[in-house]
Design goal:
The chain is of the alpha/beta class. The chain is 45% helix and 11% strand. A hairpin with a 6-residue loop joins strand 6 and strand 7. The structure holds adenosine-5'-triphosphate (ATP) and magnesium ion (MG). Adenosine-5'-triphosphate binds next to helix 2 and helix 10.
């Protein structure tokens, strides 16, 4: 390999980690940003694909143009089609007005197609055409629209497996995979864990009004041993939670979940799943025992942690479709929508009722 330019390997804005594997990511991201090439971001859940997608846009000559993210996994096939390409009034029963699609909205900028693996086979044909010809028609219209937008796509699945299973078109894959960028899992760059932990400690200490937060060596050692199926997102969640439970701003080992502490086997069948029972037990042992003036506040914070996680999991199991998730949760769809906004959860269902 040619001697690398050390500046190119420096962390991108908002990204933490200096491991050789991440340095490769920063280098490729900087190089590819300058071009208009289509980028396919791959890597396990929680590895930072979304951060890289944004960095590509911001470092590109299109930075002044729009950046449009579409979570393809959050919408049904027909909603996604009209979300991406727009529709004309009367194209289908609920199409009461003309609607501009996200490709048009991204004209002159970047469109980030997240969870690209969930696009249906039929819609993949239409996407292929945009990638090849930069043109498409709105749903229900025969007027061809031309756009100039850079495409960045992401998936946490292996698209080659999807192709083999007949769910993903190989021609679209080759068109998307012009420049592949692979985000390495956290367990393969444990050297980044102390830096990431320090970053999240600072972040959540500040947002929780905790003045100083420190972490014990024992905790750091356990974090380094754990396998992190949910990667950086999982680490972030555990740090936030430990800060909420900590009395003195010191993150001792007992503030981390048992599977992180003791190396108990990770339940791969339900990654990231934790039950409210264990959270409540921790509340009883760490929170409520201190005759604390902050107990009420703590209670609320824990309830919202549990609520956030519950909504997140149900949304995921409903592929992000809010109407379905609301039914499953037994709450009103508008309430769900408000909570999604409140917790900053990712779900981008269209305007359908
Ligand atoms: N290197 C990093 N430095 C700082 N924060 C990070 C880093 N990587 C990920 N994060 C944070 O972890 C969380 C998950 O990252 P992100 O949403 O980019 O993951 P993803 O790869 O898109 O996952 P998924 O496949 O589940 O969509 C985000 O809150 C993000 O800010
Ligand atoms: Mg993502």
């Amino acid at each position: 390999m040619a001697a690398s330019n050390s500046k190119e390997a420096e962390p991108l804005a908002g990204l933490i980690g200096k491991s050789p594997a991440m340095q490769d990511v920063y280098r490729v991201t900087r190089q590819v940003a300058a071009s208009s090439a289509t980028v396919l971001l791959t890597g396990e859940t929680g590895t930072g694909k979304e951060l890289i997608a944004r960095a590509i846009h911001e470092l590109s000559p299109r930075a002044a143009g729009p950046y449009v993210r579409v979570n393809c996994g959050a919408l049904s096939e027909s909603l996604l089609e009209s979300e991406l390409f727009g529709h004309v009034k009367g194209a289908f029963t609920s199409a009461l007005e003309n609607r501009t699609g996200r490709f048009e909205a991204a004209h002159g900028g970047t469109i980030f197609l997240d969870e690209i693996d969930s696009v249906s086979y039929t819609l993949q044909v239409k996407l292929l055409r945009v990638l090849q010809e930069q043109e498409f028609e709105r749903v229900g219209d025969n007027r061809t629209i031309r756009v100039d937008c850079r495409v960045v796509a992401a998936t946490n699945r292996d698209l080659l497996d999807e192709i083999e299973a007949g769910r993903f078109r190989d021609d679209l894959y080759f068109r998307l995979n012009v420049v592949p960028v692979y985000l390495p899992p956290l367990r393969e760059r444990t050297g980044d864990i102390p830096l990431l932990a320090a970053f999240f400690i600072r972040k959540y200490a500040e947002s929780n009004g905790v003045s100083i937060s420190t972490i014990s060596d024992e905790s750091l050692a356990a974090l380094a041993r754990y396998s992190w199926p949910g990667n950086v997102r999982e680490l972030q969640n555990y740090i936030e939670r430990a800060i909420v439970f900590s009395h003195d701003g010191h993150l001792s080992l007992d503030l981390f979940p048992p599977h992180v502490r003791g190396g108990a086997p990770v339940r791969v069948s339900r990654p990231g799943a934790r039950n409210s029972e264990s959270l409540c037990r921790e509340l009883v042992s760490h929170g409520m025992t201190s005759a604390g003036d902050a107990a009420g506040n703590l209670y609320e914070r824990i309830v919202s942690l549990v609520e956030k996680e519950l909504i997140q999991q149900v949304l995921k199991s409903c592929q992000g479709v809010q109407t379905k998730a609301a039914v499953r949760l037994g709450i009103n769809r508008n309430t769900l929508h408000k909570k999604i906004e409140e917790y900053g959860l990712e779900s981008e269902e269209g305007s359908a009722a």
